[in-house]
Amino acid sequence: EFLFKEEENQSLKKENSYFLQRLKSLESQLHEARNTVDSFELLKSANEGLRSELELNNRRLEESESQLLCIQSTAASLEGEVLTLQRDLALANDMKAKAAENFEAEK
Questions:
Q1: Which is nearest to 90 in space by CA: 100, 78, 82?
Q2: DSSP calls for 53-101
Q3: Three-state SS at 1
Q4: Distance CA 25, CA 32 (A)
Q5: 60-80 residue pLDDT tens
Q6: How far apart are CA 20 and CA 86, in angstroms?
Q7: pTM for this predicted structure
Q8: With 90 as the cut, is the pLDDT of residue 106 above it?
Q9: Distances from the Cα of 36 to the Cαs of 27, 83, 90, in angstroms?
């Protein structure tokens, strides 16, 4: 019976050793999984930061496009005014020339 108990003890030691190795392996896998989760959380946080920055940049771009449209509209309006002033200047120069002709003719 002593031999039987000794064999049983040896068998239990082997089983314990196996389960201990298995436990260590599972702990290592758990540690790796936690590191993976931590890495994922860091990437997720960085992604959220980039998404916020992208949304802000998109809003700035929309504002810039709106400002550009206003500037283009103002430029078109100023071009119209310049053309009107050039026409008025040409008319004034014509009137000046005719006045000079009339003045010379009256002399």
A1: 82
A2: HHHHHHHHHHHHHHHHHHHHHHHHHHHHHHHHHHHHHHHHHHHHHHHHH
A3: coil
A4: 11
A5: 999 999 999 999 999 999 999
A6: 97
A7: 0.56
A8: no
A9: 14, 69, 78
